Amino acid sequence: MVRSLHKLFVSNLPWTVSTPHLKTYVQQFGRVVGANVSFDRKTGISQRETTFTSRNQNQMSNKVEDKFNLAANYIQSHHNNFNKNDLLQFYAFYKQSTVGELDINQQPRPSFFKLQERAKYDAWSNLGSMDKEKAMESYIDLLTKLVPTWIESEQKENRNSAGTFGVSISRPKFEDKIDEEIKSIKDFIRDGNVEKLKTLLKDVNQSELNAIDENGLGLIHWASDIGNEEILSIILNTKGIDVNLKDGEGQTALFYASSCGHKNCVQLLLKHEADKSIVDNEESSCLDVAYDDEIRMILK
């Protein structure tokens, strides 16, 4: 790194102002690398010349970036020691530091089928237009708050392992832990977590509500397959739900409830005007796949 050398001439100082005093003052502008003193015997006034390297903005930024990279290495190695919320905040500061502000026009918010991705998206977008250096400083400050001795620990590990300083990390390991700890919408349905489901459905639009996931199923299919009448009722009473939404094989929620023998769910779907005449891609109806005679009687 090229450093800028500057000379500073100071005159008319009384003899009591020593070179160390002057160096202490000049150090606020940079590292003092030399000092010369001349003394006028007639006047008793000394003149001093100091040479120092300035701390320009680029040098300060590089110092922050180096410390940020060291912090990123530490978290990469110790991510299991942090909780989900802390990791989400680290993720947000990391993305803001390395990529910049999230472009919400180019990257739309993930659907609620992908709660892990949505949580990370929201944490990042909440930083708004924070500049990269501020994000780096915030990343470092958060780590220092949580682990005050982290820098000594990381420097020691680097010395012992001869590790490189400032390693580029394309995907921090802690993203996997975030993904593991944040449950999916299917988990909430399976667990019968009514309150969490209600909260999620408050923040969903019609296209998301009737979206088909990577398994070819919609939210209403999962609820009907599980057979939780309360969960299914919540979904059916959500504005915009398509009671006849078809999965990847052309089957509606009524097919799932019928084939699984969930009598109460079958009755609930019919109450919400589910169409029992629909046939799937194999030309089968919900009556054809009915679990038993009791379900068939309800469907006739």
TL;DR?
By secondary structure, the protein is mainly alpha-helical. The protein has 15 helices and 3 strands.
Low-pLDDT regions: 49-57, 162-170
> Which architecture of the largest domain per CATH?
Up-down Bundle
Number of beta-strand segments:
3
Beta-strand level of the residues, as a percent range?
5-15%
Gyration radius, rounded: 33 Å
Integer average pLDDT: 79
CATH class of the largest domain: Mainly Alpha
Overall 3D form: elongated
Protein name: Acyl-CoA-binding domain-containing protein 6
GO molecular function: fatty-acyl-CoA binding; RNA binding
ANK repeats: 249-281
Keywords: ANK repeat, Lipid-binding, Repeat, RNA-binding
Give a verbal description of the structure.
Keywords: ANK repeat, Lipid-binding, Repeat, RNA-binding. Residues 64-152 form the ACB domain. This is Acyl-CoA-binding domain-containing protein 6. GO terms for molecular function: fatty-acyl-CoA binding; RNA binding. By secondary structure, this protein is mainly α. It has helices at 19-26, 57-78, 84-98, 115-125, 132-146, 150-161, 174-181, 185-191, 194-201, 206-209, 219-226, 229-236, 253-260, 263-271, 293-299; strands at 5-14, 30-40, 45-54. Strands 1-3-2 form a 3-stranded antiparallel β-sheet, covered by helices on one side. The N and C termini lie far apart (82 Å).
